[in-house]
Design goal:
Layout: H1 12-22, E1 26-27, H2 39-50, H3 67-81, E2 91-95, H4 96-108, E3 114-119, H5 123-131, E4 135-140, H6 150-156, E5 161-167, H7 179-192, E6 195-199, E7 227-232, H8 233-236, E8 244-249, H9 251-261, H10 270-281, H11 286-307, E9 311-313, E10 320-324, H12 333-344, E11 346-347, E12 349-350, E13 368-372, H13 377-390
The structure holds 4'-deoxy-4'-aminopyridoxal-5'-phosphate (PMP) and glutamine.
Organism: Nesterenkonia flava
GO molecular function: transaminase activity
Cofactor: pyridoxal 5'-phosphate
Length: about 400
């Protein structure tokens, strides 16, 4: 977002993928998997478009999403974590997590207020806060383990804070916030009567050697009427193009976001919603399989980056390894990424695109580069060879 001209610029993902295509480079930039999602799920989507017994699959869906999806989301969380959600009032389907995030921010970020987020953050948080006319204040996650500093969070909250944005498991560090950390954040928010949006799109991508277990924020005492959670089928089922997401929380909070969603998309496409409902009812072992494959990719990339002389962080979850490039480059992470693209044919993303523009030049977050490992292992192997040669 360019505050001077008021225009929204192409995202770092768009630019990186365009750069990768232009240079015929290996794309470890944008976080989408090379794999297509399980065949049975793709078949469910193909079926849903032509089978009318599931409702009119090609006309407007109800604003909250088709009942089959809301029921499947409710049942899924009940089974996995004992969370009880009313599908009639506490679940709203959205056009990807991206729409849930935008609608939630527009529902609470008053113009002139401050919104607090941990940095790095998913880029849409910063853009939507700016579009709402609010100001983003960030609390950094720091190496070596990138855990949230809750004292710093407390200091960042002011009487003018309208909401807290957080993301666990975290993009790009893979940090899984502990139940205690979540409880503390909820407490700080409740004391100030502000809401917490918790983006949980990587909830199904947690490795078996993770140092912390994931608790959905809505299962933590104190979440009611304070927290909203965001989920996405894109990451859970390796179908990022389907753009099926959902928002969960108390009926009161969800209803407020629903008001905004009406004027973003009105309603989200029903056919993919139906297919995702099938997947949530029974993932047929896909979540476990996917995590095992991703973990191999993580280890391959992490060890390769270390071999190339970068200081790489092995994540507990998600699609990304962040690595500090100061050992191999005196330049900024942006300059490193530009050279890596043109000289080595590998695209990656400088973490400086995922922090506030006000972050000081010497901040260590500006020396980090994000590499995606949700790619074919042969691609990762080739990318590692190129990076090793380059450094
Ligand atoms: N939040 C985070 C943290 C993400 O990494 C992404 C990208 N997948 C999104 C939200 C957006 O998800 P979706 O593609 O479902 O809109
Ligand atoms: N979530 C993915 C990432 O972080 C892609 C997001 C996007 O392309 N908008 O790379």
């Amino acid at each position: 977002y360019d505050a001077e001209t008021g225009s929204v610029l192409p995202t770092i993902y768009e630019r990186t993928t365009a750069g990768a295509l232009a240079h015929q480079a290996l794309n470890l930039g944008q976080g989408f998997p090379d794999a297509q999602g399980p065949d049975w799920l793709l078949e469910a989507a193909a079926h849903s478009i032509t089978h009318h017994e599931i409702g009119p699959p090609n006309q407007y869906a109800p604003g909250l999403g088709i009942p089959a999806l809301r029921e499947a989301v409710a049942e899924h969380y009940r089974r996995r974590s004992g969370l009880v959600l009313d599908p009639e009032t506490q679940i709203m389907a959205t056009t990807g997590a991206t729409e849930a995030i935008a609608a939630t921010i527009l529902a609470w970020a008053r113009p002139g207020s401050e919104v607090v987020a941990f940095a790095p953050f998913y880029d849409s948080y910063g853009a939507c806060v700016a579009l709402a006319g609010a100001r983003l204040r960030t609390v950094p996650l720091r190496a070596p383990d990138y855990r949230p500093d809750l004292k710093a969070l407390e200091t960042a909250l002011t009487p003018n804070t309208s909401m807290i944005l957080m993301n666990t498991p975290h993009n790009p560090t893979g940090t899984v916030f502990s139940r205690e950390e979540l409880a503390r954040i909820l407490h700080l928010a409740a004391e100030r009567d502000i809401v917490v949006m918790c983006d949980e799109v990587y909830e199904h991508l947690i490795f078996d050697d993770a140092s912390h277990t994931h608790s959905p924020i809505l299962t933590v005492p104190g979440a009611e009427n304070v927290a909203l959670a965001v989920g996405s089928a894109g990451k859970s089922f390796s179908v990022t193009g389907w753009k099926v997401g959902w928002l969960t929380g108390s009926a009161k909070l969800v209803n407020r976001v629903r008001g905004v969603k009406q004027f973003l998309s009105f309603s989200s496409g029903p056919a993919f919603q139906w297919a995702v409902a099938q997947g949530l009812q029974d993932d047929q072992g896909f979540f476990a399989e996917n995590v095992a494959t991703l973990k191999k990719g993580r280890d391959l990339l992490h060890s390769g980056l270390e071999r190339a002389g970068l200081r790489a962080h092995s994540p507990d979850a998600g699609y990304f390894v962040v690595a500090d490039v100061s050992g191999v480059s005196e330049h900024s992470a942006e300059a490193f990424c530009a050279e890596l693209l043109t000289h080595a044919g590998v695209a990656a993303i400088p973490v400086s695109s995922l922090i506030s523009a006000e972050t000081p030049a010497e901040d260590p977050l500006r020396k980090l580069v994000r590499f995606a490992f949700c790619k074919d292992h042969s691609t990762l192997e080739e990318a590692v060879e190129r990076i090793v040669r380059f450094t």
